[in-house]
């Protein structure tokens, strides 16, 4: 196949006039999830740090993302790698110090980048001073956590947990504390005691922590694990789920009617939103509140708000992670996308995320032949796009030996089963170059905290930077479209399928001469020639003026008919077109598609 290398991005700017929009910053941009341990190590201890993010800020600017979302960097004994926080207002020494954080905020804002933090409201670390005082029943901390008496004592006079509740991490959710003589609840790791959200003092503490970071300059939060915030106060046993794939000590073996998705928890989230609104008015900056909730679609939608209460700006849409699998048909993919769009409350803002520090990477879930297609969808569907570090260069999961396993979920599963549970494979250091340690750490540094993927000699940023056909170049072209095109920012969405294997969506503006976007995805293992004349906005007369695509067979300036569009195996093509319906001048172009730019 002939490869035409063109100055794609330069030409692209000519085609597009920058969109003039008064939408909030988080609507038109891509948020980039940084896993700070794995981004860049500046002090040669083998672990990424805040200054490592600071030195790479220009990278985000050139990539075209507008905001960073940081996994927790707070003081922590690291029993759950920072999601167990022992001081919500301090930076852990692993990552640096408070001055480094201030530098990060300032340097972000100098570049017009926003900084969003992960916030973990469900629990603290068992080494938090609140918990230590709660054990001693020192007021006001006595009721800061969920304490319960033993149900009874067993034959050897050992305390029996108050009920059958299980931890998400497996085993009883209750841990006995000798000193207090009671059990505490931990829905996650034993080092993560659940806070008591029936206690107004706890809620106020957490709100003050949000205020603290907003005063320091951050632009918003992602609240994680929120479905677990509240528990039923009767502490009854949960019923069995009767799902035979789970053993009796696995979380999935119970039906979580008393520990998850409780009706009362949503008003806590709405209260956090009030803080965001209060600070937004006070600080005069536009702020963002997201929640991550693994819940049914119906429950997820409640985080947007209910009746007269406003909730998060959006709950993170996990549909492309949890429902979209390698092998999903075009019809099911359409349904997965439509499902979110139609479930949203009126005028709510959508979003798409395809990876996180808890999930296998896109390139590993779908294969590297299809990951670009998934990235294209997440960037061009309506709403905010959230990307996980490394997706832009197509990083894959890394095989990690038992000896090198760090994630408590993996460690707890033991050497036989750890690969099924460990999240380490998707958390390995960013692959900057083909240098020692992939440029993550200096050559004389200690070994990185997790091994570098062996493919780093080929898969790295330096190798992709000057290659206009690379995943990196495509990613950049997509962020430019988000920034510059009204059709991507606010255009309508229509989804179509052609046969079993072709999924198509358009983003179009009504009554406008501006460019519209059409994305065609081939889920098949074979090349397909599809009739796209059914796509209404195209049928009414479309001239395609630009396209991005890997392994496309089109050449510059080639005309083609919407009756037979050729899409390579597992490929995905992005076309820009002007609908002739609104423009008499374009009417003669009816049914003629001119591809004037190509990437491959
Ligand atoms: C009593 O409980 C303890 C702690 O859970 C356990 O190790 C022990 O085996 C139990 N004894 C009996 C007789 O069940
Ligand atoms: C939570 O705090 C409230 C208010 O202080 C208190 O009444 C309640 O008993 C506490 N709940 C638990 C399970 O400790
Ligand atoms: C599991 O089976 C029991 C006994 O048949 C039944 O009572 C219970 O409702 C079932 N649980 C679920 C979640 O269906
Ligand atoms: C995805 O599915 C295709 C076709 O079934 C298969 O060949 C490929 O190995 C799969 N890739 C992954 C990463 O599972
Ligand atoms: C492009 O085609 C080549 C050769 O058929 C194949 O190896 C490669 O995986 C394709 N790339 C993508 C992204 O589909
Ligand atoms: C690994 O998982 C299997 C199947 O769930 C289980 O039977 C086995 O006991 C586990 N092994 C260890 C060492 O935990
Ligand atoms: C995506 C995310 O933030 N996941 C975290 C949610 O919280 C649990 C427990 O605190 C962590 O283990 C996850 O990594
Ligand atoms: Ca470091
Ligand atoms: Ca809880």
TrEMBL record:
Occurrences of domain Glycosyl hydrolase family 13 catalytic (ranges): 33-427
Keyword entries, A-Z: Glycoprotein, Glycosidase, Hydrolase, Signal
CDD domains noted in UniProt: AmyAc_maltase
Pfam families, A to Z: Alpha-amylase
GO molecular function terms listed in the Swiss-Prot or TrEMBL record: alpha-1,4-glucosidase activity
Catalysed reaction, written as an equation: Hydrolysis of terminal, non-reducing (1->4)-linked alpha-D-glucose residues with release of alpha-D-glucose
Signal peptide: 1-19
EC main group: hydrolase
GO terms under biological process: carbohydrate metabolic process
Enzyme Commission designation: 3.2.1.20
SUPFAM superfamilies: (Trans)glycosidases (SSF51445), Glycosyl hydrolase domain (SSF51011)
Taxonomy, superkingdom: Eukaryota
SMART domains noted in UniProt: Aamy
Family to which the UniProt record says this protein belongs: Belongs to the glycosyl hydrolase 13 family.
Full protein name: alpha-glucosidase
Organism, as annotated: Cloeon dipterum
